[in-house]
């Protein structure tokens, strides 16, 4: 019998770091104001000394995520091969019984991305190539997001995005519907007809209100209408898809491919937006993107208010996914995105002709900046 090759990716340590930063400019959505952000960073170290990094979406309570990873998930990984990503994913899933989602899958996400980082380093290849990349050296990007704020701020933010070279821009909207209708009209006047506009409501409406706003967006030739309803209002989303000739975007609130598959199969969503720091890491997020391709649905990574590791991982997914449409390039300053890793990918500073470069170094292609974990650490 042929001997199995030696394994240089035996896991010897899993570390989780809760981080927080104040935002230079408070961000406003229909759900309220966000003056600060939190994430959890995961490091997986092997016996050979390699370290892979990942990120968990933990906007509040990052300390709890870090402790859960250390106490509940890490013991299941020690001494095992980082190559066995799917087996490790399934074993971590068994830590909590019941339906998959929430803190468990967001915690797995950080670990899974770190395992992919290790695999790319070991193979000497970027992650998008391990995924069977489709050959994109750069990815199209849109400006995200114009705040749900007063008209003067909105005008300034749209002008700035246009000046940065964006031809696709997303604006935040909310309740009441009358104000949202005025906002989407105002944004179109400012941006002009040659710019692709999208609007993100962050669950602000019921189906009837969303229909009112969406019909105006149709008349104004908007690119898509994002999360108009709460994510569990599936019948409401089906109504919108039936009556609005407008791409409905959602999926950032979904955790697994199994969870979002019905909406892809029946065409409820015209654009699916899983977040790699929430949707189980690169393994599960790419599965969602592949399902979208199978059903003819477009895919756009959700980046949102995450950090630099999530942003880099999202660029890899954008580069590899067959159904990729456009990349969410955040245009507000976020130290956890801009000052956590070196280099930085997926940030507006790297925008050229409305596009972003794809990493070429092995793994994620980024490392944590020296001292960054200590600088942003939340005291436990």
Roughly how many Å is the radius of gyration? 20 Å
Major beta sheet summary: 9 strands, mixed
Strand content: 15-25%
Structural class: alpha/beta
SSE order in H/E notation? Answer: EEEHHHHEHEHEHEHEHEHEHEHEEEH
CATH architecture label of the largest domain: Alpha-Beta Barrel
Could you state the CATH homologous superfamily of the largest domain?
Enolase-like C-terminal domain
Distance between the termini: 51 Å
Q: How many separate structural domains?
A: 2
Mean pLDDT: 95
Helical fraction equals: 25-40%
CATH first level of the largest domain: which class? Alpha Beta
| CATH T-level fold name of the largest domain | TIM Barrel
* Number of DSSP helical runs: 13
Q: What coarse outline follows from CA principal-axis ratios?
A: globular
Which residues form runs of ≥5 with pLDDT under 50? 1-5
- Count of strand segments: 14
List the helices and strands and how they pair.
Elements: E1 11-29, E2 32-46, E3 51-57, H1 62-73, H2 85-93, H3 102-123, H4 127-130, E4 138-146, H5 151-163, E5 168-172, H6 177-191, E6 196-200, H7 207-219, E7 224-226, H8 234-243, E8 248-250, H9 257-265, E9 271-272, H10 281-294, E10 298-299, H11 308-320, E11 327-330, H12 335-338, E12 341-342, E13 355-357, E14 367-368, H13 372-376
Parallel strand pairs: 4-5, 4-11, 5-6, 6-7, 7-8, 8-9, 9-10
Antiparallel strand pairs: 1-2, 2-3, 4-13, 12-14
């Amino acid at each position: 019998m042929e001997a199995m090759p030696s394994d240089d990716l035996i896991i010897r340590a899993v570390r989780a770091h809760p981080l927080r930063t104040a935002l230079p400019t408070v961000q406003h959505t229909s759900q309220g104001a966000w003056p600060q952000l939190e994430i959890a960073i995961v490091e997986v170290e092997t016996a050979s000394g390699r370290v892979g990094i990942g990120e968990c979406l933990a906007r509040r309570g990052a300390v709890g995520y870090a402790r859960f990873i250390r106490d509940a998930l890490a013991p299941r990984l020690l001494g095992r091969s980082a190559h066995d990503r799917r087996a490790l994913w399934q074993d971590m899933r068994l830590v909590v019984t019941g339906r998959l989602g929430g803190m468990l899958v967001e915690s797995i996400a950080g670990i899974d991305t770190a395992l992919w980082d290790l695999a790319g380093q070991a193979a000497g290849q970027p992650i998008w190539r391990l995924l069977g990349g489709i050959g994109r050296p750069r990815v199209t990007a849109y400006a995200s997001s114009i705040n749900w704020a007063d008209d003067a701020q909105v005008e300034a933010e749209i002008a700035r995005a246009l000046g940065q070279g964006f031809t696709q821009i997303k604006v935040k909207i909310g309740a009441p519907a009358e104000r949202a209708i005025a906002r989407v009209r105002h944004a179109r006047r400012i941006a002009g007809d040659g710019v692709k506009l999208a609007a993100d409501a962050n669950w602000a409406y019921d189906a009837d209100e969303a229909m009112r706003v969406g019909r105006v967006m149709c008349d104004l030739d908007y690119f898509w209408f994002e999360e108009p309803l709460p994510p569990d209002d599936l019948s409401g989303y089906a109504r919108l898809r039936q009556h609005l000739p407008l791409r409905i975007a959602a999926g950032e609130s979904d955790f697994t491919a199994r969870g979002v598959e019905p909406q892809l199969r029946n065409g409820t969503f015209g654009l699916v937006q899983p977040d790699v720091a929430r949707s189980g890491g690169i393994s599960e997020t790419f599965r969602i993107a592949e399902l979208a391709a199978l059903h003819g649905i477009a895919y756009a990574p959700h980046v949102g208010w995450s950090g630099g590791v999530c942003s880099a991982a999202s660029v890899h997914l954008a580069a590899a996914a067959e159904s990729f449409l456009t990349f969410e390039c955040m245009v507000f300053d976020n130290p956890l995105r801009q000052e956590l890793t070196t280099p930085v990918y997926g940030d507006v500073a790297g925008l050229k002709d409305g596009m972003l470069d794809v990493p070429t170094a092995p793994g994620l292609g980024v490392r944590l900046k020296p001292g960054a974990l200590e600088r942003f650490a939340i005291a436990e």
